[in-house]
Amino acid sequence: xAANKPTPTPTPTTPLTPTSTEPTHILFVGAGAxxxxxxxxxxxxxxxxxxxLTARSNYSAIAASGVVLQTHSFGNYTFWPYAVFPSIxxxxxxxxxxxxxxASSSQTPPRHGWDYIIxxxxxxxxxxxxxxxxxPLVSAKSCIVLIQxxxxxxxxxxxxxxxxxxxxxxxxxxxxxxxxxVIRQNRWTRISLGPYGTGLATPPSSTAKSAEVVQRGYxxxxxxxxxxxxxxxxxxxxTHTELELQTIRWHKLCINAAFNPTAVLSGGxxxxxxxxxxxxxxxxxxxxxxxxxxxPKVLGKxxxxxxxxxxxxxxxxxxxxxxxxxxxxDWEAGRPMELEVILGxxxxxxxxxxxxxxxxxxxxxxxxxxxxxxxxxxxxxKL
Length: 383
Ligand SMILES: NC(=O)c1ccc[n+]([C@@H]2O[C@H](COP(=O)([O-])OP(=O)(O)OC[C@H]3O[C@@H](n4cnc5c(N)ncnc54)[C@H](OP(=O)(O)O)[C@@H]3O)[C@@H](O)[C@H]2O)c1
Ligand SMILES: *[C@@H]1O[C@H](CO)[C@@H](O)[C@H](O)[C@H]1NC(C)=O
Ligand SMILES: *[C@@H]1O[C@H](CO)[C@@H](O)[C@H](O)[C@H]1NC(C)=O
Ligand SMILES: CC(=O)N[C@H]1CO[C@H](CO)[C@@H](O)[C@@H]1O
Known about the structure:
Organism: Hypoxylon rubiginosum
Number of domains: 2
Strand order of the largest sheet: 5-2-1-6-7-8-11-12
Number of helices: 12
Number of strands: 12
Bound molecules: NADP nicotinamide-adenine-dinucleotide phosphate, 2-acetamido-2-deoxy-beta-D-glucopyranose
Protein name: 2-dehydropantoate 2-reductase
Strand content: 15-25%
CATH topology of the largest domain: Rossmann fold
Order of helices and strands: EHEHEEEEHEHEEEEHEHHHHHHH
CATH architecture of the largest domain: 3-Layer(aba) Sandwich
CATH superfamily of the largest domain: NAD(P)-binding Rossmann-like Domain
Structural class: alpha/beta
Shape: globular
Distance between the termini: 55 Å
Largest sheet: 8 strands, mixed
């Protein structure tokens, strides 16, 4: 890291391996279940790769004891990030607010900025503009990575950061924060990555500039894949084109837009349990079919054969008894639900492409109203 002036030498120097050059600094924004799990597999000081976290309600727990991971795939271990920050502003390079690290109480953000900013908050565009929140962290060299459910999550970042590479990511991990700073990974590790260009409204090849940004997205994505895979032991890191990744996002809606809203509206039933009720089963199948028919029209590309069709999703869900979707847990805990990215955005994006999604629209309208009525009631009680 020290800026040693190279001594002039008449012979060409041996090419440096990537690990012997500048350190790579990666910041996860949102130290929840997904963030802590993937961050812990990406911190490799021996390879000059340093991963830091911004935490919020669990800051003091992580600052004091690190992140305790109980994993199905890698056993139990404690992850000590390079640095943990109590807020986004504390992680701004050259900011004066000190952060905490177990080795040093004056850990500061990297002077030369963040190479990767990986957003693992819940996607709640109706509550906070996370692209605006991270803006002070982003410099010319930053690649923005979004590991979140839903569709349309990238658009606010692309608008705000037209020149930065963006990698869009979908994970099927099953993980939860069982208490502050303690993350349990129940099963699965797969993460699918794809670069994000201009969005689907504009063809990716529209300008040389956008093609160049996508190209840089590819390069940064390959790097991440290698680190997670080679050093982090995650075997199923998959890389895709921009359009393929969007197909995967829409495909995952067949699960998230079907079972999650239904869990809340059916009075709290888990995914497999919903399928034991014939009327609910028909309703779930109808949602999946709606997505199955709409997505190819929106994306201009059919679902590839390797993605499970609705009947296969239903069969595998039946076997996974006991699973309760995150939207239900959020509703029960009085937290906002990811309604916009799982229901609102698909309805709006499809409509813009001339496709109506009446089943999703009904779920969206009902849940949004339920949430609003409850929050209005809470606000009145407080007065
Ligand atoms: N968990 C899974 O198994 C799973 C699987 C697939 C996909 N996903 C998706 O992955 C995304 C992340 O989910 P998750 O389960 O990891 O959620 P989570 O456990 O709730 O983690 C989100 C974290 O972000 C923090 N946060 C939010 N806004 C912040 C801010 N402005 N500054 C600092 N921290 C902030 C939250 O802090 P507070 O605690 O203070 O609110 C929380 O610790 C979601 O889109 C989810 O749908 C999750
Ligand atoms: C990890 O910790 C949990 C909780 O303490 C325990 O039940 C489990 O057996 C541990 N797993 C391993 C592999 O040690
Ligand atoms: C932080 O400050 C150093 C020295 O003043 C400067 O070289 C560096 O570019 C700054 N980093 C950022 C991200 O502004
Ligand atoms: C909101 C919340 O759960 N905050 C917790 C964050 O972590 C500290 C330390 O474990 C707890 O004391 C807080 O209650």
